[in-house]
Amino acid sequence: QVQLVESGGGLVKPGGSLRLSCAASGFTFSDYYMSWIRQAPGKGLEWVSYISGSGTTIYYADSVKGRFTISRDNAKNSLYLQVNSLRAEDTAVYFCARNAITDLDYWGQGTLVTVSS
Amino acid sequence: DIVMTQTPLSLSVTPGQPASISCKSGQSLLHSDGKTYLYWYLQKPGQPPQLLIYEVSNRFSGVPDRFSGSGSGTDFTLKISRVEAEDVGVYYCMHSIELPRTFGQGTKVEIK
Question: Counting beta carbons within 10 angstroms of the beta carbon of residue B93, is it exposed (0 to 12), middle (13 to 18) or buried (19 or more)?
């Protein structure tokens, strides 16, 4: 079955960086686009970024462009999000999700990023 | 960006009764390929969102048939024919016709 497991979140000071990871299993990872979506505490969902199966097509939300970098390692069945220049408003649970014909069909449990001094 | 507007923002339902959530998009979600890219998700407490409905009216794998979606263009509806206790959570609509994907504000469903 499809499994997505995020890791790498934590407490970081404003201006700091983290690398979030998403380990995928149960499907042919390289065949699928993958996305990151975030959810601030008690708030709704915000799409952050996505990457094609080959890694050649990438898009970002305007709110993170220039600060976040999405990447993947198909040999390791892993998706990454490098988050730099963090701000308080980046505090959120970050979910990875698989993009299929049915778009965001499976989601991981999420990893919490807290930006605070 | 396409604005997605859900109503109501909260709903209290008696078990066994129907429930309905509306979602309106700021522009048509009908693509030139003939498909309409409107999705519904349910986020149960403490869990990630789970896909319920894709392309307006198609139930995702394993989704009970008490859930149904309808609509066209810019106006869409999610209906639960008979609400059960396990249906509590926040329901979100989302479009995927262009980037960025955007979500509605969410509709919190609770049981009376």
Answer: buried
pLDDT in tens, A27-66: 999 999 999 999 999 999 999 999 999 999 999 999 999 9
Torsion angle in degrees (nearest 10) through CA of B8, B9, B15, B20: 30
Kind and range of the H or E run holding B43? strand B38-43
Phi first, then psi: give them for residue B19, nearest 5 degrees.
-145, 150
- Say how far apart CA A17 and CA A103 lie, in whole Å: 29
Residue A85 tokens read as: 């220049």
Per-residue pLDDT at A97 exceeds 90: yes
pLDDT per residue as tens digits for the range A64-90: 999 999 999 999 999 999 999 999 999
Q: Do A103 and B54 touch (CB under 8 A)?
A: yes
Q: Is B69 on the interface with A (CB under 8 A)?
A: no
B37 close to A (CB below 8 A):
yes
